[in-house]
Design brief:
- The chain is of the alpha/beta class and 461 residues long.
- It folds into two domains: 111 residues, Urease, subunit C, domain 1, CATH 2.30.40; 321 residues, TIM Barrel (Alpha-Beta Barrel).
- It is 31% helix and 23% strand.
- A hairpin with a 2-residue loop joins strand 20 and strand 21.
- Helix 3 packs parallel to helix 4, helix 4 packs across helix 7 and helix 7 runs parallel beside helix 8.
- The radius of gyration is 21 Å and the shape is globular.
- Bound molecules: N-(aminocarbonyl)-beta-alanine (URP) and zinc ion (3 copies).
Amino acid sequence: MRTLIKGGTVLSPTGGVLADVLVQDEQVAAVTAPGVFDTADTVLDATGKYVLPGGIDAHTHMEMPFGGTFSADTFETGTTAAAWGGTTTIIDFAVQAKGTSLVSTLDKWHEKADGNCAVDYGFHMIVSDVNDATLKEMETCIDSGVTSFKMFMAYPGVFYSTDGEILRAMQKARETGSTIMMHAENGIAIDELVAQALASGKGEPVQHGLTRPSALEGEATSRAITLAQVTGAPLYIVHLSAAEALSAVAEARDSGQHVFAETCPQYLYLSIDDLAKPGFEGAKYVASPPLREKRHQADLWRGLRTNDLSVVSTDHCPFCFKDQKELGRGDFSKIPNGMPGVEHRMDLLHQGVVAGEISLGRWVEACSTTPARMFGLYPRKGVIAPGSDADIVIYDPAARQTLSAETHHMNVDYSAYEGFEITGKVETVLSRGKVVVSPSGFSGGTGHGRFLSREKCQYLN
Ligand code: URP
Ligand code: ZN
Ligand code: ZN
Ligand code: ZN
């Protein structure tokens, strides 16, 4: 089965070239000068369009248990929405509950995901119970293709780890060449501020932002970097939102430390003004770290250009406004943390290209190529080259669309980007050679997506 994508501009981190792409079964067979091949079983005309490697969203939470409920997208609905938005790989998080093992956690997440995904998927492991057995099990996880471990300096009593526990896990990461991913917010200090706000009768959503000041993200980021330096572990800061945290990452990188960071579209486009919307509307924007003052956004765009921010992921963790965000009406600390976004990352970052904030090459690099290398999927994913999986997006840079909950495919009753006018639109998506999205609709199927056993980080020399 051969598919020929003709006439498009093929994108990579170095920019675009006019080229044709020949797909044989599940893989890219050739990238040629235009016109070298002219027949195939299927010919897709990409004239005037971009042809880019499928997006890789390295940070999603499908059906994640949180605050007494579950994030609203299942692996089926969430990966289908991802496909619609040009994302052909997700890396989701298996969540170790305290008192349980990493291996049983991984089994559980395979049960949820296997056979239910529309696109390929991998897992990171959230470590919330550090002990001798857990540390030993990190090796089993790595052998099972889970080579990155997320830890939390926030959420005391739930996912939180002490500095000592983090140090021990980092020692294990150093020993095994695996990566520690850090949710860097000072949760101990934050919990005091939250208790004080609630005690003085301040329960509205904006308090979520006011009680999690950016300095406490900066402090935790610096502390995580110091622990990584002491142990020699590679460190990846997740969902970086604050200028102070970015400065700490930039300084560590300039000193040669293996420190990496991602940001998310919500921190580039939304702000604490959204959290402060009247009534309970702000609950739609409650996620941690919180949306920041607008002044942080220019720093984040700069970080994307300088590579101090190497990856854009979504932290997709949707909770419905009507019945889930509602759990925290009157007490912001009970609003489930997280926002929907897996469907819109490619489009939103393309606006950065349109606005001149980042180059076309940087768009592809931050949304596909770097996440592939960061999490051990390259060159199978993240590039259009002979032998790579044919995960390919045909993107129309001139199309116009308006984002809305009315038209999105995520299983959540609101859009954080309602009414956003977007230049550019996904036209066709191939996942391992199969057309899963086209102008005539979704033609994929749950069960098409396969589990990706990952190598270690490919930036460690
Ligand atoms: O608010 C968020 N980000 N929810 C998802 C869990 C996490 O911390 O990434
Ligand atoms: Zn987090
Ligand atoms: Zn630098
Ligand atoms: Zn997350």
